[in-house]
Amino acid sequence: MADHILPSTPAPRAELPTLGPITEQPRGFDLFRLPGIRHLVRWKYARFAFQLPLLILALLVIIDGFTGRQLAPRNVATTSVWLHYRGLVVLALALFGNAFCAACPLMLTRGATNRLKRILPDIEWPRALQNKWFVGSLTLIYLFSYEYFDLWASPYLTAWLAVGYFGAALVVDALFPDGTFCRFVCPLGNFNFALSSASPTMITAIDHDLCRQCKHKPCLHGRETRAEGAGTGRAAFIPLAEITHANSEGYFPGCETNLFVPAIQSNMDCTNCFNCVRACPYDNVALTVRAPWWELTRAPWQQRGRLAVMAFAVLLTYWGLLNAAAMVGPFFDLAQSISRALSSESELVVLGALFLLVTAVGLLTSMAISTVADLLGGAGFHPWRALQRWGYVTLALGVGFWGAHYLFHFLTGALSAAPVFAHFFEYRGFAVDPNWRLAQMVPTRWLFPITASFTVAYTLLASYVTIWIGLRDFDRRGVLAIWPVLLFVLAFASLALLVLAQPMEMRGTILGPSY
């Protein structure tokens, strides 16, 4: 086997990663072992097959957003994006993993970007922006714009948002290396990256010894395969005769976000594109089932992103709390108080102040709690280091609350997909009759028990992660260190349940509550 793993063609890059001691990875069931799944994902056009449905949906969003009725509950743009898409995203993250990045239609601009790269200069993404600070700022602007411009109520603006996303992906990936948009620019992708830290699956290597012998690391750098002759130099050339499990000829790209399969310990930056599966000539990549707490208890971001990625994940939790609170009555009372304090009735000023206040208070609160825990554990006064240790707890709470919030919207309007899409064709002259009585999936009285249960489940996860980190890093003193964090978990969960218990705006549905 070793002879087949050491082709003589030089590597496509000057430096290749080396695999030292076996990296700890989960060893659960490989989903690719299910009948037909591995064969499907190894197919060269598998990702396009996943992307095509979402591409069609994106086109419908743009068409109906620009040319359809500008009534949000009856327009494909607003209902599919702000009701169905968001709800299905969190369900997919909780039950499977980053499925929507895997099927992202934005990457279908890659053909155009590759042609543009031939005439445009090769530019490196600025080193100062190779972190999560920039995309965190874009995420803050995105969430602020959602509230300020009432995007959920505007099909026209939602369509422009979709066009802007396609345009940004095209421009960024044409000017900079592939994967730059996903890793450093896309707010939705990075939202998925952060929340997938609690997902039950992860890409892993099956046999680490096989990876040690592999010379060119095609899972990372890509490969070329021909039955005869040599490659074109786009990636490492591995002849067809030297491949253990052939899955076609041609060029197979590697990981665009620079993840090396046997060293992966986190879902951060993994789009589940499965390029690594198709590029690996030895069929040595698995989609492994793991415990939802596996990643949160391993501190994997110390090797990838460090403080920037942790700050982004922690702030995402507090922004999620604000995003949901903006739909309940007490929020408007708070906004009025801030308006009086600032002597301004400008929504831009008041809403901006609220977002900045939540950002500052949230980050300082998590840092303060983490620092107190470190001091009790005997680690000394190092606030930023403490945040990187305990921030996973805040993230677990954020996963639960974002999930509960988006699940609320989904359950209030999931069935509206049928009449809304029927109306799309009716509005354009087709003989269809939308049934507008279809909207809410469950009775209103079920909404709080369901969303509260979701929140409580991730509160228990956060508590487990707290105890694990305390005992892992502080041994016996961990019993002292965990208490301020556990009290924080309890306080956050109480606030989350209080928000969920409030009467909320029935955004995106044309019907009132269903009892």
Question: How is this structure best described in words?
Answer:
It is a single chain. By secondary structure, the chain is mostly helical. Helix content is 56%, strand content 3%. It has 19 helices and five strands. The strands form two sheets. Strands 3-2-4 form a three-stranded mixed β-sheet. 45% of the residues are buried.
Q: How is the secondary structure organized here?
A:
Elements: H1 37-42, H2 46-67, H3 76-95, H4 99-102, H5 110-117, H6 133-148, H7 155-175, H8 180-185, H9 187-195, E1 201-205, H10 208-213, H11 218-221, E2 223-225, E3 236-237, E4 250-252, H12 275-279, E5 285-289, H13 306-325, H14 329-342, H15 347-377, H16 383-413, H17 417-426, H18 444-474, H19 478-501
Parallel strand pairs: 2-3
Antiparallel strand pairs: 1-5, 2-4
Condensed summary:
The chain is mainly alpha-helical.
Which short descriptors sum up this protein?
3% strand; mainly alpha; three-stranded mixed sheet; 56% helix; disordered N terminus; 515 residues
The helical percent reads: 55-70%
Helix/strand structural class: mainly alpha
Q: Rg from C-alpha positions? A: 24 Å
Number of strands: 5
Mean pLDDT: 89
Run of helices and strands = HHHHHHHHHEHHEEEHEHHHHHHH
**In percent terms, what proportion of residues is strand?**
under 5%
Would you identify the regions where 5 or more consecutive residues have pLDDT less than 50?
A: 1-16
Sheet with most strands? 3 strands, mixed
Shape: globular
* Strand ordering within the main sheet: 3-2-4
The rounded distance between the terminal residues' Cα atoms is 65 Å
Number of helices: 19
